[in-house]
Amino acid sequence: MTRQHTADPVVVEIIRNALSSAAEDMNATLIRSAYTPIIYECGDCVVALLDDRHQVLGQSAGLPIFLGNLETCTRATEEKFGREIWQPGDVWILNDSYLGGTHLNDVTIFGPVFVGAELVGFTATRAHWIDVGSKDPGGSMDSVNIFQEGLRLGPQKLIDGGAEVHGVIDTIATNVRFPYPTTGDMHAMIATIRMGQTRLAEIVQRWGLDTLRAARDEIFAQTERIEREVIDGIPDGIYHAEGFLDNDGIELDKPIPVKLRITVCGDNIEFDVTESADQAEGPVNCGTAQAIAACRVGYKLLVSPDVPGNGGSFRPLTVQVREGSVFGARPPAACQWYFSHLGLLIDLVAKALAPAMPEKVAGASHGDSMIALFAGHDPRTGRDYVSLEATLGGWGAWQGSDGESALINNVNGSLKDLPIEVVETCYPLRVVDYRIRQDSGGAGRWRGGNGVVREYVVQHDCTVSLWFERSVTPAWGLFGGQEARPPEVTINPGRPDERRMLKCNGYRLRAGDVVRCMTGGGGGFGDPWERDSAAVRADVADRLISAEQATEEYGVPIETGPESTHSPRGESE
Protein backbone atom coordinates (compact mmCIF):
# COMPACT_ATOMS: atom_id res chain seq x y z
CA MET A 1 0.00 0.00 0.00
CA THR A 2 1.46 3.38 -1.05
CA ARG A 3 1.60 6.00 1.68
CA GLN A 4 0.35 9.39 0.51
CA HIS A 5 2.69 12.29 1.25
CA THR A 6 1.02 15.10 3.23
CA ALA A 7 2.38 18.58 3.85
CA ASP A 8 2.49 20.41 7.15
CA PRO A 9 0.09 23.42 7.13
CA VAL A 10 2.94 25.80 7.88
CA VAL A 11 4.97 24.39 5.02
CA VAL A 12 1.94 24.74 2.73
CA GLU A 13 1.78 28.48 3.48
CA ILE A 14 5.52 28.91 3.02
CA ILE A 15 5.37 27.20 -0.36
CA ARG A 16 2.22 29.13 -1.38
CA ASN A 17 4.01 32.42 -0.76
CA ALA A 18 7.26 31.21 -2.29
CA LEU A 19 5.44 30.42 -5.54
CA SER A 20 3.73 33.81 -5.54
CA SER A 21 7.05 35.53 -4.85
CA ALA A 22 8.71 33.59 -7.66
CA ALA A 23 6.02 34.82 -10.06
CA GLU A 24 6.51 38.40 -8.88
CA ASP A 25 10.28 38.03 -9.41
CA MET A 26 9.57 36.96 -12.96
CA ASN A 27 7.27 39.91 -13.54
CA ALA A 28 9.83 42.34 -12.14
CA THR A 29 12.49 40.88 -14.43
CA LEU A 30 10.29 41.45 -17.47
CA ILE A 31 9.24 45.00 -16.63
CA ARG A 32 12.78 46.07 -15.73
CA SER A 33 14.27 44.51 -18.85
CA ALA A 34 11.68 45.43 -21.49
CA TYR A 35 12.44 47.89 -24.27
CA THR A 36 8.98 49.31 -25.04
CA PRO A 37 6.78 51.52 -22.81
CA ILE A 38 3.73 49.33 -23.27
CA ILE A 39 5.53 46.74 -21.14
CA TYR A 40 7.85 48.70 -18.83
CA GLU A 41 5.37 51.53 -18.15
CA CYS A 42 1.92 50.09 -18.83
CA GLY A 43 2.66 46.54 -17.68
CA ASP A 44 0.83 44.85 -20.57
CA CYS A 45 2.15 41.45 -19.57
CA VAL A 46 1.68 38.51 -17.23
CA VAL A 47 3.78 35.59 -16.00
CA ALA A 48 3.03 32.22 -14.45
CA LEU A 49 4.60 29.13 -12.92
CA LEU A 50 2.99 25.83 -13.89
CA ASP A 51 3.44 22.31 -12.60
CA ASP A 52 4.29 19.38 -14.84
CA ARG A 53 0.57 18.84 -15.51
CA HIS A 54 0.18 22.42 -16.82
CA GLN A 55 -1.66 23.62 -13.69
CA VAL A 56 -1.05 27.12 -12.34
CA LEU A 57 1.18 27.20 -9.27
CA GLY A 58 1.66 30.95 -9.12
CA GLN A 59 0.74 33.93 -11.27
CA SER A 60 1.76 37.57 -10.98
CA ALA A 61 -0.46 40.59 -11.00
CA GLY A 62 -1.16 41.54 -14.57
CA LEU A 63 -3.96 41.22 -17.08
CA PRO A 64 -6.81 39.12 -15.66
CA ILE A 65 -7.95 38.36 -19.21
CA PHE A 66 -4.98 35.97 -19.32
CA LEU A 67 -6.25 34.29 -16.14
CA GLY A 68 -5.69 30.56 -16.30
CA ASN A 69 -4.78 30.95 -19.96
CA LEU A 70 -1.02 30.55 -20.24
CA GLU A 71 -1.23 26.83 -19.60
CA THR A 72 -3.21 26.55 -22.83
CA CYS A 73 0.00 27.26 -24.71
CA THR A 74 2.14 24.66 -22.97
CA ARG A 75 -0.63 22.09 -23.18
CA ALA A 76 -1.22 22.74 -26.89
CA THR A 77 2.49 22.34 -27.57
CA GLU A 78 2.60 19.01 -25.75
CA GLU A 79 -0.50 17.78 -27.54
CA LYS A 80 1.04 18.63 -30.88
CA PHE A 81 4.55 17.26 -30.37
CA GLY A 82 4.28 14.79 -27.48
CA ARG A 83 5.54 14.79 -23.92
CA GLU A 84 9.07 13.94 -24.97
CA ILE A 85 9.45 17.28 -26.77
CA TRP A 86 10.36 19.01 -23.50
CA GLN A 87 14.11 19.19 -23.06
CA PRO A 88 16.38 21.13 -20.64
CA GLY A 89 17.44 24.54 -21.88
CA ASP A 90 14.61 24.94 -24.39
CA VAL A 91 12.45 28.04 -24.71
CA TRP A 92 9.36 28.17 -26.93
CA ILE A 93 7.29 30.92 -28.57
CA LEU A 94 3.65 31.08 -29.71
CA ASN A 95 1.19 33.80 -30.69
CA ASP A 96 -1.47 31.94 -32.70
CA SER A 97 -4.81 33.65 -31.98
CA TYR A 98 -6.73 30.40 -32.26
CA LEU A 99 -4.55 28.65 -29.66
CA GLY A 100 -3.74 31.45 -27.22
CA GLY A 101 -7.05 33.16 -27.86
CA THR A 102 -5.84 36.76 -28.11
CA HIS A 103 -4.44 38.89 -30.93
CA LEU A 104 -1.10 38.25 -32.59
CA ASN A 105 0.55 41.10 -30.68
CA ASP A 106 0.20 39.08 -27.47
CA VAL A 107 3.23 36.82 -27.68
CA THR A 108 3.66 33.92 -25.26
CA ILE A 109 7.14 32.60 -24.45
CA PHE A 110 7.52 29.54 -22.23
CA GLY A 111 9.91 26.80 -21.25
CA PRO A 112 10.17 23.59 -19.23
CA VAL A 113 11.77 23.40 -15.80
CA PHE A 114 13.99 20.44 -15.03
CA VAL A 115 15.61 19.44 -11.76
CA GLY A 116 18.18 16.90 -12.73
CA ALA A 117 16.58 14.78 -15.42
CA GLU A 118 13.02 15.23 -14.14
CA LEU A 119 10.48 17.64 -15.62
CA VAL A 120 8.94 19.47 -12.66
CA GLY A 121 7.00 22.25 -14.35
CA PHE A 122 6.98 25.18 -16.74
CA THR A 123 7.41 28.92 -16.68
CA ALA A 124 5.51 31.18 -19.07
CA THR A 125 5.10 34.83 -19.88
CA ARG A 126 2.91 36.78 -22.26
CA ALA A 127 3.47 40.38 -23.32
CA HIS A 128 2.19 42.78 -25.93
CA TRP A 129 4.64 43.43 -28.77
CA ILE A 130 4.17 46.87 -30.28
CA ASP A 131 4.20 45.56 -33.85
CA VAL A 132 4.11 42.12 -35.43
CA GLY A 133 4.02 43.09 -39.10
CA SER A 134 0.32 43.78 -39.58
CA LYS A 135 -0.85 45.72 -42.62
CA ASP A 136 -0.85 48.90 -40.49
CA PRO A 137 1.72 49.91 -37.88
CA GLY A 138 0.90 48.48 -34.47
CA GLY A 139 -2.35 46.83 -35.56
CA SER A 140 -5.31 47.39 -37.86
CA MET A 141 -8.77 48.55 -36.86
CA ASP A 142 -10.26 47.29 -40.13
CA SER A 143 -8.64 43.89 -40.68
CA VAL A 144 -10.93 41.22 -42.10
CA ASN A 145 -8.67 38.17 -41.78
CA ILE A 146 -5.79 36.97 -39.64
CA PHE A 147 -3.29 37.35 -42.48
CA GLN A 148 -3.68 41.13 -42.35
CA GLU A 149 -2.82 41.17 -38.67
CA GLY A 150 0.81 40.12 -38.79
CA LEU A 151 3.21 37.24 -38.26
CA ARG A 152 1.42 34.19 -36.84
CA LEU A 153 3.57 31.68 -35.00
CA GLY A 154 2.49 28.25 -33.93
CA PRO A 155 4.50 26.68 -31.10
CA GLN A 156 8.19 26.53 -32.00
CA LYS A 157 11.55 26.73 -30.32
CA LEU A 158 13.34 30.02 -29.79
CA ILE A 159 16.13 28.35 -27.86
CA ASP A 160 17.14 24.74 -28.39
CA GLY A 161 19.21 23.20 -25.62
CA GLY A 162 20.48 26.62 -24.56
CA ALA A 163 21.37 27.83 -28.07
CA GLU A 164 19.33 30.44 -29.91
CA VAL A 165 17.46 29.26 -33.00
CA HIS A 166 18.67 32.03 -35.28
CA GLY A 167 16.33 31.15 -38.13
CA VAL A 168 13.24 31.81 -36.01
CA ILE A 169 14.67 34.96 -34.44
CA ASP A 170 15.70 36.30 -37.85
CA THR A 171 12.23 35.55 -39.24
CA ILE A 172 10.70 37.59 -36.45
CA ALA A 173 13.15 40.48 -36.82
CA THR A 174 12.63 40.74 -40.58
CA ASN A 175 8.81 40.68 -40.36
CA VAL A 176 8.22 43.48 -37.85
CA ARG A 177 8.58 47.22 -38.29
CA PHE A 178 10.65 47.77 -35.16
CA PRO A 179 13.12 44.88 -34.92
CA TYR A 180 15.41 46.40 -32.30
CA PRO A 181 12.84 47.00 -29.51
CA THR A 182 10.91 43.88 -30.52
CA THR A 183 13.88 41.56 -30.16
CA GLY A 184 14.77 43.47 -27.00
CA ASP A 185 11.36 42.65 -25.52
CA MET A 186 11.78 39.06 -26.72
CA HIS A 187 15.07 38.67 -24.87
CA ALA A 188 13.53 40.30 -21.77
CA MET A 189 10.86 37.60 -21.89
CA ILE A 190 13.51 34.90 -22.27
CA ALA A 191 15.28 36.30 -19.20
CA THR A 192 11.93 36.13 -17.40
CA ILE A 193 11.62 32.45 -18.27
CA ARG A 194 15.12 31.83 -16.94
CA MET A 195 14.29 33.63 -13.70
CA GLY A 196 11.20 31.47 -13.25
CA GLN A 197 13.12 28.30 -13.99
CA THR A 198 15.69 29.24 -11.35
CA ARG A 199 13.08 30.11 -8.72
CA LEU A 200 10.96 26.99 -9.25
CA ALA A 201 14.05 24.76 -9.20
CA GLU A 202 15.14 26.40 -5.93
CA ILE A 203 11.76 25.60 -4.34
CA VAL A 204 11.98 21.97 -5.47
CA GLN A 205 15.55 21.64 -4.24
CA ARG A 206 14.73 23.15 -0.85
CA TRP A 207 11.53 21.25 -0.06
CA GLY A 208 11.64 18.24 -2.33
CA LEU A 209 9.27 17.41 -5.15
CA ASP A 210 6.98 15.24 -3.01
CA THR A 211 6.46 18.05 -0.49
CA LEU A 212 5.88 20.59 -3.25
CA ARG A 213 3.25 18.37 -4.86
CA ALA A 214 1.56 17.71 -1.53
CA ALA A 215 1.45 21.45 -0.82
CA ARG A 216 0.13 22.07 -4.32
CA ASP A 217 -2.67 19.57 -3.82
CA GLU A 218 -3.66 21.17 -0.53
CA ILE A 219 -3.60 24.70 -2.00
CA PHE A 220 -5.75 23.58 -4.92
CA ALA A 221 -8.17 21.77 -2.60
CA GLN A 222 -8.53 24.82 -0.34
CA THR A 223 -9.30 27.04 -3.34
CA GLU A 224 -11.85 24.61 -4.70
CA ARG A 225 -13.61 24.33 -1.32
CA ILE A 226 -13.87 28.11 -1.00
CA GLU A 227 -15.34 28.47 -4.47
CA ARG A 228 -17.82 25.62 -4.10
CA GLU A 229 -19.10 27.03 -0.81
CA VAL A 230 -19.86 30.37 -2.49
CA ILE A 231 -21.57 28.76 -5.48
CA ASP A 232 -23.60 26.50 -3.23
CA GLY A 233 -25.05 29.64 -1.66
CA ILE A 234 -26.42 30.86 -5.00
CA PRO A 235 -30.01 29.72 -5.59
CA ASP A 236 -30.20 27.01 -8.24
CA GLY A 237 -31.59 28.27 -11.50
CA ILE A 238 -30.91 29.75 -14.91
CA TYR A 239 -29.84 33.39 -15.20
CA HIS A 240 -29.64 35.47 -18.37
CA ALA A 241 -28.06 38.72 -19.57
CA GLU A 242 -27.24 40.22 -22.95
CA GLY A 243 -25.71 43.30 -24.52
CA PHE A 244 -24.29 44.57 -27.79
CA LEU A 245 -20.96 45.67 -29.16
CA ASP A 246 -21.32 48.81 -31.29
CA ASN A 247 -20.09 47.04 -34.43
CA ASP A 248 -17.20 45.00 -35.79
CA GLY A 249 -15.26 47.94 -37.21
CA ILE A 250 -16.38 47.13 -40.77
CA GLU A 251 -20.18 47.31 -40.76
CA LEU A 252 -20.49 50.34 -38.50
CA ASP A 253 -24.29 50.28 -38.27
CA LYS A 254 -24.58 46.60 -37.27
CA PRO A 255 -24.37 45.88 -33.50
CA ILE A 256 -22.92 42.53 -32.39
CA PRO A 257 -25.08 40.63 -29.85
CA VAL A 258 -23.43 39.01 -26.85
CA LYS A 259 -25.66 36.62 -24.90
CA LEU A 260 -24.90 34.81 -21.66
CA ARG A 261 -26.82 32.05 -19.91
CA ILE A 262 -25.67 30.93 -16.46
CA THR A 263 -26.90 27.69 -14.91
CA VAL A 264 -26.35 27.06 -11.20
CA CYS A 265 -26.86 23.56 -9.85
CA GLY A 266 -25.62 22.85 -6.33
CA ASP A 267 -21.95 23.74 -6.11
CA ASN A 268 -21.44 23.74 -9.89
CA ILE A 269 -21.96 26.59 -12.34
CA GLU A 270 -22.03 26.74 -16.14
CA PHE A 271 -21.57 29.75 -18.41
CA ASP A 272 -23.01 29.39 -21.91
CA VAL A 273 -22.26 31.92 -24.66
CA THR A 274 -23.33 29.75 -27.59
CA GLU A 275 -26.23 32.07 -28.53
CA SER A 276 -23.88 34.99 -29.18
CA ALA A 277 -23.21 36.24 -32.69
CA ASP A 278 -21.48 34.26 -35.41
CA GLN A 279 -17.88 35.25 -35.99
CA ALA A 280 -17.76 38.68 -37.54
CA GLU A 281 -16.01 39.99 -40.63
CA GLY A 282 -14.17 42.60 -38.59
CA PRO A 283 -11.52 42.05 -35.88
CA VAL A 284 -13.78 41.43 -32.87
CA ASN A 285 -13.35 37.65 -32.74
CA CYS A 286 -11.32 35.55 -30.31
CA GLY A 287 -10.25 31.97 -29.79
CA THR A 288 -12.12 29.72 -27.37
CA ALA A 289 -9.30 29.89 -24.81
CA GLN A 290 -9.84 33.61 -24.38
CA ALA A 291 -13.61 33.30 -24.09
CA ILE A 292 -13.06 30.84 -21.25
CA ALA A 293 -10.60 33.26 -19.65
CA ALA A 294 -13.17 36.08 -19.73
CA CYS A 295 -15.79 33.86 -18.11
CA ARG A 296 -13.24 33.03 -15.44
CA VAL A 297 -12.66 36.73 -14.75
CA GLY A 298 -16.38 37.39 -14.34
CA TYR A 299 -16.68 34.30 -12.15
CA LYS A 300 -13.71 35.20 -9.98
CA LEU A 301 -14.89 38.77 -9.36
CA LEU A 302 -17.96 37.36 -7.62
CA VAL A 303 -16.84 33.99 -6.28
CA SER A 304 -13.25 34.30 -5.04
CA PRO A 305 -11.86 37.80 -5.62
CA ASP A 306 -9.44 37.61 -2.69
CA VAL A 307 -7.94 34.20 -3.48
CA PRO A 308 -4.93 34.11 -5.84
CA GLY A 309 -5.59 32.12 -8.97
CA ASN A 310 -4.14 28.61 -9.08
CA GLY A 311 -4.85 25.16 -10.44
CA GLY A 312 -7.69 24.72 -7.96
CA SER A 313 -9.52 27.75 -9.27
CA PHE A 314 -12.47 27.34 -11.63
CA ARG A 315 -13.00 23.64 -10.99
CA PRO A 316 -16.72 24.23 -10.31
CA LEU A 317 -17.01 26.21 -13.58
CA THR A 318 -17.71 24.90 -17.07
CA VAL A 319 -17.94 27.11 -20.14
CA GLN A 320 -19.86 26.35 -23.33
CA VAL A 321 -18.55 28.10 -26.48
CA ARG A 322 -19.81 27.58 -30.02
CA GLU A 323 -17.19 27.07 -32.69
CA GLY A 324 -17.64 29.62 -35.45
CA SER A 325 -18.98 32.30 -33.11
CA VAL A 326 -17.29 35.55 -32.05
CA PHE A 327 -16.11 33.61 -28.97
CA GLY A 328 -14.92 30.53 -30.86
CA ALA A 329 -13.33 31.92 -34.00
CA ARG A 330 -12.18 29.69 -36.81
CA PRO A 331 -9.39 30.62 -39.24
CA PRO A 332 -9.03 32.98 -40.94
CA ALA A 333 -11.22 35.20 -38.69
CA ALA A 334 -9.73 38.56 -37.74
CA CYS A 335 -8.92 38.83 -34.01
CA GLN A 336 -7.02 42.12 -33.57
CA TRP A 337 -9.45 43.73 -31.09
CA TYR A 338 -10.55 40.52 -29.45
CA PHE A 339 -11.14 42.03 -26.01
CA SER A 340 -14.18 44.31 -26.56
CA HIS A 341 -16.82 41.59 -26.33
CA LEU A 342 -14.87 39.94 -23.52
CA GLY A 343 -15.15 43.08 -21.36
CA LEU A 344 -18.86 43.20 -22.09
CA LEU A 345 -19.16 39.50 -21.20
CA ILE A 346 -17.46 40.06 -17.84
CA ASP A 347 -19.96 42.81 -16.98
CA LEU A 348 -22.84 40.59 -18.10
CA VAL A 349 -21.86 37.96 -15.52
CA ALA A 350 -22.62 40.45 -12.74
CA LYS A 351 -25.82 41.60 -14.45
CA ALA A 352 -27.10 38.04 -14.81
CA LEU A 353 -26.34 37.08 -11.20
CA ALA A 354 -27.46 40.39 -9.67
CA PRO A 355 -30.84 39.02 -8.48
CA ALA A 356 -29.08 36.18 -6.66
CA MET A 357 -26.02 38.08 -5.36
CA PRO A 358 -27.11 41.72 -4.86
CA GLU A 359 -24.51 42.35 -2.18
CA LYS A 360 -21.60 41.30 -4.43
CA VAL A 361 -22.38 42.71 -7.86
CA ALA A 362 -21.58 46.14 -9.29
CA GLY A 363 -22.99 48.24 -12.07
CA ALA A 364 -21.25 47.86 -15.40
CA SER A 365 -17.87 49.45 -16.04
CA HIS A 366 -16.91 51.59 -19.04
CA GLY A 367 -15.91 48.22 -20.38
CA ASP A 368 -13.35 48.65 -23.14
CA SER A 369 -9.67 49.47 -23.55
CA MET A 370 -10.51 52.59 -25.60
CA ILE A 371 -7.44 52.46 -27.82
CA ALA A 372 -5.75 55.50 -29.35
CA LEU A 373 -2.90 54.54 -31.67
CA PHE A 374 -0.66 57.18 -33.26
CA ALA A 375 1.89 56.26 -35.93
CA GLY A 376 4.31 58.27 -38.02
CA HIS A 377 7.85 59.54 -38.35
CA ASP A 378 9.55 61.32 -35.46
CA PRO A 379 11.91 64.01 -36.85
CA ARG A 380 13.60 64.27 -33.46
CA THR A 381 15.03 60.78 -33.80
CA GLY A 382 14.74 60.17 -37.53
CA ARG A 383 12.77 56.99 -36.82
CA ASP A 384 9.24 55.75 -37.31
CA TYR A 385 7.15 55.23 -34.18
CA VAL A 386 3.93 53.71 -32.89
CA SER A 387 2.25 54.90 -29.71
CA LEU A 388 -0.57 52.67 -28.48
CA GLU A 389 -2.50 53.59 -25.35
CA ALA A 390 -5.47 52.24 -23.48
CA THR A 391 -7.57 55.03 -21.99
CA LEU A 392 -8.99 54.91 -18.48
CA GLY A 393 -12.69 55.07 -17.63
CA GLY A 394 -15.23 54.70 -14.83
CA TRP A 395 -16.22 51.55 -12.94
CA GLY A 396 -19.65 50.64 -11.63
CA ALA A 397 -20.90 51.33 -8.14
CA TRP A 398 -21.92 48.57 -5.76
CA GLN A 399 -23.83 48.25 -2.53
CA GLY A 400 -22.05 50.48 -0.05
CA SER A 401 -19.57 52.22 -2.34
CA ASP A 402 -19.29 54.54 -5.31
CA GLY A 403 -17.53 53.27 -8.39
CA GLU A 404 -13.93 54.27 -8.98
CA SER A 405 -13.08 56.93 -11.53
CA ALA A 406 -10.22 56.80 -14.02
CA LEU A 407 -9.36 53.09 -13.87
CA ILE A 408 -8.34 50.72 -16.63
CA ASN A 409 -11.05 48.37 -17.89
CA ASN A 410 -11.79 45.02 -16.32
CA VAL A 411 -9.91 42.86 -18.83
CA ASN A 412 -6.65 44.72 -18.20
CA GLY A 413 -6.37 44.56 -14.41
CA SER A 414 -3.16 46.18 -13.22
CA LEU A 415 -2.30 47.70 -16.61
CA LYS A 416 -1.57 51.43 -16.38
CA ASP A 417 -1.96 54.32 -18.75
CA LEU A 418 1.15 56.00 -20.12
CA PRO A 419 2.32 58.97 -18.02
CA ILE A 420 2.18 62.26 -19.92
CA GLU A 421 5.93 62.68 -19.45
CA VAL A 422 6.58 59.36 -21.19
CA VAL A 423 4.22 60.17 -24.05
CA GLU A 424 5.84 63.53 -24.72
CA THR A 425 9.38 62.19 -24.34
CA CYS A 426 9.00 59.11 -26.51
CA TYR A 427 6.65 60.41 -29.20
CA PRO A 428 6.04 63.70 -31.08
CA LEU A 429 2.77 64.30 -29.19
CA ARG A 430 1.62 66.73 -26.53
CA VAL A 431 -1.06 65.96 -23.96
CA VAL A 432 -2.74 69.30 -23.26
CA ASP A 433 -5.69 68.13 -21.17
CA TYR A 434 -6.08 65.17 -18.85
CA ARG A 435 -8.87 65.23 -16.28
CA ILE A 436 -11.94 63.53 -14.87
CA ARG A 437 -14.94 63.72 -17.21
CA GLN A 438 -17.62 65.36 -15.08
CA ASP A 439 -21.11 63.77 -15.07
CA SER A 440 -20.01 60.70 -17.02
CA GLY A 441 -20.78 58.19 -14.25
CA GLY A 442 -24.29 56.85 -13.78
CA ALA A 443 -26.34 58.40 -10.98
CA GLY A 444 -27.30 56.21 -8.07
CA ARG A 445 -27.50 55.92 -4.31
CA TRP A 446 -23.92 54.94 -4.92
CA ARG A 447 -22.58 56.86 -7.89
CA GLY A 448 -20.80 55.27 -10.83
CA GLY A 449 -17.20 56.31 -11.39
CA ASN A 450 -16.35 58.92 -14.01
CA GLY A 451 -14.39 58.50 -17.20
CA VAL A 452 -11.62 60.82 -18.32
CA VAL A 453 -10.85 63.46 -20.93
CA ARG A 454 -7.45 63.05 -22.59
CA GLU A 455 -6.56 65.48 -25.36
CA TYR A 456 -3.58 65.22 -27.70
CA VAL A 457 -2.00 67.75 -30.05
CA VAL A 458 0.15 66.15 -32.74
CA GLN A 459 3.45 67.90 -33.35
CA HIS A 460 4.05 66.48 -36.83
CA ASP A 461 1.99 64.82 -39.54
CA CYS A 462 0.93 61.32 -38.54
CA THR A 463 -2.02 58.95 -38.49
CA VAL A 464 -4.39 58.03 -35.68
CA SER A 465 -6.33 54.79 -35.35
CA LEU A 466 -9.15 54.56 -32.82
CA TRP A 467 -11.04 51.71 -31.18
CA PHE A 468 -13.60 53.06 -28.71
CA GLU A 469 -16.58 50.90 -27.76
CA ARG A 470 -19.77 50.66 -25.68
CA SER A 471 -21.92 53.44 -27.15
CA VAL A 472 -24.75 51.03 -28.03
CA THR A 473 -24.59 49.37 -24.61
CA PRO A 474 -23.17 51.98 -22.20
CA ALA A 475 -22.40 50.96 -18.63
CA TRP A 476 -25.76 50.09 -17.08
CA GLY A 477 -26.80 50.62 -13.50
CA LEU A 478 -28.34 48.12 -11.10
CA PHE A 479 -31.28 48.24 -8.70
CA GLY A 480 -32.43 51.67 -9.85
CA GLY A 481 -28.98 53.05 -10.64
CA GLN A 482 -28.66 55.00 -13.89
CA GLU A 483 -26.54 54.13 -16.91
CA ALA A 484 -23.34 56.05 -17.59
CA ARG A 485 -22.51 58.29 -20.51
CA PRO A 486 -20.89 56.56 -23.50
CA PRO A 487 -17.48 57.46 -24.97
CA GLU A 488 -16.87 60.25 -27.45
CA VAL A 489 -13.86 61.09 -29.63
CA THR A 490 -13.57 64.38 -31.49
CA ILE A 491 -10.94 65.35 -34.02
CA ASN A 492 -10.23 69.11 -34.00
CA PRO A 493 -13.10 70.09 -31.68
CA GLY A 494 -14.65 73.47 -32.44
CA ARG A 495 -12.90 73.87 -35.78
CA PRO A 496 -14.48 73.83 -39.26
CA ASP A 497 -12.92 70.42 -39.90
CA GLU A 498 -14.26 68.91 -36.66
CA ARG A 499 -15.08 65.20 -36.91
CA ARG A 500 -16.57 62.78 -34.41
CA MET A 501 -15.73 59.08 -34.58
CA LEU A 502 -15.23 56.11 -32.30
CA LYS A 503 -13.42 53.82 -34.71
CA CYS A 504 -11.08 54.64 -37.57
CA ASN A 505 -7.99 53.21 -39.18
CA GLY A 506 -5.01 55.31 -40.22
CA TYR A 507 -6.86 58.65 -40.23
CA ARG A 508 -4.41 61.30 -41.41
CA LEU A 509 -3.55 64.19 -39.12
CA ARG A 510 -1.55 67.35 -39.74
CA ALA A 511 0.75 69.10 -37.32
CA GLY A 512 -1.38 71.00 -34.82
CA ASP A 513 -4.42 68.74 -35.13
CA VAL A 514 -6.19 67.82 -31.91
CA VAL A 515 -7.61 64.46 -30.80
CA ARG A 516 -9.92 64.68 -27.79
CA CYS A 517 -10.79 61.31 -26.22
CA MET A 518 -13.59 61.09 -23.65
CA THR A 519 -14.34 57.76 -22.03
CA GLY A 520 -17.53 56.55 -20.45
CA GLY A 521 -18.24 56.13 -16.77
CA GLY A 522 -19.56 53.27 -14.67
CA GLY A 523 -23.16 52.46 -13.87
CA GLY A 524 -24.84 53.61 -10.69
CA PHE A 525 -26.27 51.39 -7.95
CA GLY A 526 -29.59 52.06 -6.23
CA ASP A 527 -32.08 54.93 -6.50
CA PRO A 528 -30.25 58.27 -6.94
CA TRP A 529 -32.81 60.03 -4.75
CA GLU A 530 -31.69 57.88 -1.83
CA ARG A 531 -28.14 59.26 -2.00
CA ASP A 532 -27.09 61.30 1.01
CA SER A 533 -27.48 64.98 0.11
CA ALA A 534 -24.17 65.83 1.77
CA ALA A 535 -22.44 63.32 -0.52
CA VAL A 536 -24.11 64.95 -3.54
CA ARG A 537 -22.89 68.39 -2.49
CA ALA A 538 -19.40 66.98 -1.91
CA ASP A 539 -19.46 65.53 -5.44
CA VAL A 540 -20.34 68.96 -6.82
CA ALA A 541 -17.57 70.59 -4.79
CA ASP A 542 -15.11 68.01 -6.14
CA ARG A 543 -16.43 68.63 -9.68
CA LEU A 544 -17.32 64.97 -10.10
CA ILE A 545 -20.88 66.00 -10.96
CA SER A 546 -22.35 69.32 -12.03
CA ALA A 547 -24.92 71.39 -10.16
CA GLU A 548 -27.37 70.53 -12.92
CA GLN A 549 -26.95 66.78 -12.41
CA ALA A 550 -27.21 67.21 -8.65
CA THR A 551 -30.61 68.81 -9.10
CA GLU A 552 -31.98 66.80 -12.00
CA GLU A 553 -30.73 63.31 -11.08
CA TYR A 554 -30.47 63.51 -7.29
CA GLY A 555 -33.05 66.14 -6.39
CA VAL A 556 -30.50 68.17 -4.45
CA PRO A 557 -30.67 71.87 -5.38
CA ILE A 558 -27.34 73.65 -5.62
CA GLU A 559 -27.35 77.43 -5.40
CA THR A 560 -25.61 78.69 -8.55
CA GLY A 561 -27.22 82.12 -8.82
CA PRO A 562 -29.27 84.68 -6.89
CA GLU A 563 -32.02 82.11 -6.34
CA SER A 564 -32.63 78.47 -7.04
CA THR A 565 -35.33 77.55 -9.54
CA HIS A 566 -35.40 73.88 -8.53
CA SER A 567 -37.39 72.11 -5.85
CA PRO A 568 -35.62 70.06 -3.19
CA ARG A 569 -36.40 66.41 -2.61
CA GLY A 570 -39.93 65.69 -1.52
CA GLU A 571 -41.35 69.06 -2.65
CA SER A 572 -43.30 69.92 -5.77
CA GLU A 573 -43.01 73.15 -7.70
What does this structure look like?
The protein has helices at residues 9-33, 37-40, 70-81, 97-100, 166-174, 179-207, 209-232, 288-303, 340-353, 420-426, 533-541, 547-554; strands at 45-51, 56-59, 91-94, 106-115, 118-128, 156-160, 163-164, 237-245, 256-265, 268-272, 317-320, 371-378, 383-390, 429-436, 452-458, 462-467, 488-491, 499-500, 503-509, 514-518. The model is unreliable at 563-567 (pLDDT under 50). Helix content is 28%, strand content 22%. The relative contact order is 0.11. A seven-stranded antiparallel sheet has the order 2-1-5-4-3-6-7, sandwiched between helices. It is built from twelve helices and 20 strands. The chain is globular and about 75 Å long. The protein has 573 residues and is an alpha+beta fold. The N and C termini lie far apart (85 Å). The longest helix has 29 residues, at 179-207.
Secondary-structure topology with pairs:
Layout: H1 9-33, H2 37-40, E1 45-51, E2 56-59, H3 70-81, E3 91-94, H4 97-100, E4 106-115, E5 118-128, E6 156-160, E7 163-164, H5 166-174, H6 179-207, H7 209-232, E8 237-245, E9 256-265, E10 268-272, H8 288-303, E11 317-320, H9 340-353, E12 371-378, E13 383-390, H10 420-426, E14 429-436, E15 452-458, E16 462-467, E17 488-491, E18 499-500, E19 503-509, E20 514-518, H11 533-541, H12 547-554
Parallel strand pairs: 10-11
Antiparallel strand pairs: 1-2, 1-5, 3-4, 3-6, 4-5, 6-7, 8-9, 9-10, 12-13, 12-16, 14-15, 15-20, 16-19, 17-18, 17-20
